[in-house]
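Query structure, 300 tokens:
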């Protein structure tokens, strides 16, 4: 560690970030970026495994000619430390309304999904989501407290329908099929090379999962930044460009299932004091996903 710290001290131009998790990122001379993770500095020790996973992924795939990976000059891990030095690239900025941009991004995503799942990730198996009754009761209560802030605008009956059906929908519709997924696929993790190639960084969350997860997360992050793309457009574009053997309907069902789970279980924690418009965006999307899934399942 001392040698790496000495190298950074001698060549760093600036410290770009002090990650909340404890990872330090530096801009170095000669157009390079260094990421340094010390296990004993992590705010949450459970995050250590994610940095080990990223190091393993770079070590195993950079030499395989994956043209969407940044150039890695140094990648080394021990029981206590992760060291990564990569080439610095310019950020990739979303060009709203540009079909070409969506195609470029999803073409790269399709290539990621076509990678074999690395051996070091085989032990991580997809599981059918199931929420115990106490958890569901707490989620229902949380949502009820949110909607009560806005009078009679929101339907309590819709909340009960989600509460009653979420486990049954997960059991009947969840797909255990897995691809190699990035796990944190959004614009801030996309870079652009001098020759125009899109590069993907920050592989801490790489792992097996359904292709729909990366697509759904990408769209949700874009929406949070004020750019909304219809699911139908996104799924059609992905399926046209990707050679993964997954149908549009399967992706749509898995996206709705993931959105329903996330919305009901987590969103109520963040919506207290929010505007009626903001709550309506989340609430109406959750109910829309519920109705879509009930129709896909064949009952109402």
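Result returned for the query:
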């Amino acid at each position: 560690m001392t040698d790496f710290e000495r190298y950074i001290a001698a060549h760093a131009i600036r410290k770009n970030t002090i990650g909340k998790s404890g990872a330090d990122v530096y801009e170095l001379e000669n157009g390079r970026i260094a990421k340094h993770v010390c296990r004993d500095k992590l705010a949450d020790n459970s995050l250590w495994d994610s940095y080990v996973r990223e190091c393993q992924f770079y070590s195993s795939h950079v030499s395989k000619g994956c043209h969407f990976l940044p150039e890695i000059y140094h990648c080394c891990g021990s029981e206590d430390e992760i060291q990564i030095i990569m080439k610095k690239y310019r950020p990739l900025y979303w060009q709203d309304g540009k079909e070409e941009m969506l195609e470029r991004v999803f073409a790269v995503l399709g290539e990621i999904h076509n990678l074999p799942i690395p051996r070091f990730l085989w032990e991580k198996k997809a599981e059918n989501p199931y929420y115990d009754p106490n958890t569901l009761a707490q989620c229902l209560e949380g949502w009820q407290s949110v909607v009560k802030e806005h009078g009679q605008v929101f339907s309590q009956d819709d909340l009960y329908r989600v509460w009653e059906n979420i486990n049954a929908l997960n059991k009947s519709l969840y797909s255990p099929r897995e691809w190699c997924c990035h796990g944190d696929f959004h614009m801030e993790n996309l870079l652009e090379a001098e020759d125009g190639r899109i590069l993907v960084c920050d592989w801490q969350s790489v792992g097996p999962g359904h292709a729909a997860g990366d697509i759904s997360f990408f769209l949700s992050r874009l929406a949070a930044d004020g750019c909304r793309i219809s699911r139908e457009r996104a799924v059609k574009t992905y399926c046209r460009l990707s050679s993964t053997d997954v149908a549009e309907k399967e992706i749509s069902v898995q996206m709705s299932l993931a959105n329903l789970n996330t919305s009901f279980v987590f969103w109520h924690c963040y919506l207290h004091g929010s505007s009626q418009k903001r709550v309506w965006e989340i609430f109406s999307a959750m109910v829309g996903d519920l109705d879509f899934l009930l129709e896909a399942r064949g009952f109402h």
